[in-house]
Design brief:
The protein has 106 residues and is α+β, with helices and mostly antiparallel strands. Helix content is 19%, strand content 17%. The radius of gyration is 18 Å and the shape is globular.
Length: 106
């Protein structure tokens, strides 16, 4: 977002038109957000919402949000939500954002 803003500012100062198209990335989503994908795979920086256990040491910010709500021992592991089989249509998949924007509390 900063790069897009900076490019727009430079274009405005120079008086040139600029159309910026940036592809969507998982970083555009909130950490821990659950996405319903119309594909049979999860995009980069997401994992299937299949109840798997993750090491806390590699996913500390996500553990700070989820804790042991979805499983794990809370010392070395924690779990992702298990939404496998709950998709609204065949070929769709729920994915959890594991690298993104840390959500703020109201």
């Amino acid at each position: 977002m900063f790069r897009t803003f900076r490019s727009a500012m430079v274009a405005a100062i120079l008086g040139i038109g600029l159309t910026v198209h940036t592809p969507a990335k998982a970083l555009d989503f909130y950490l821990g957000q659950v996405l319903l994908m119309g594909t049979n795979f999860c995009q980069r920086d997401t994992l299937p919402a299949d109840g798997r256990l993750l090491p806390i040491s590699q996913h500390t910010p996500l553990f700070a949000l989820y804790g042991t709500t979805y499983g794990g021992d809370g010392r070395t592991t924690f779990g992702l939500p298990n939404l496998k089989g709950k998709e609204p249509a065949k070929g769709m998949r729920y994915c959890v954002v594991v690298a993104g924007i840390f959500p703020s509390r109201p």
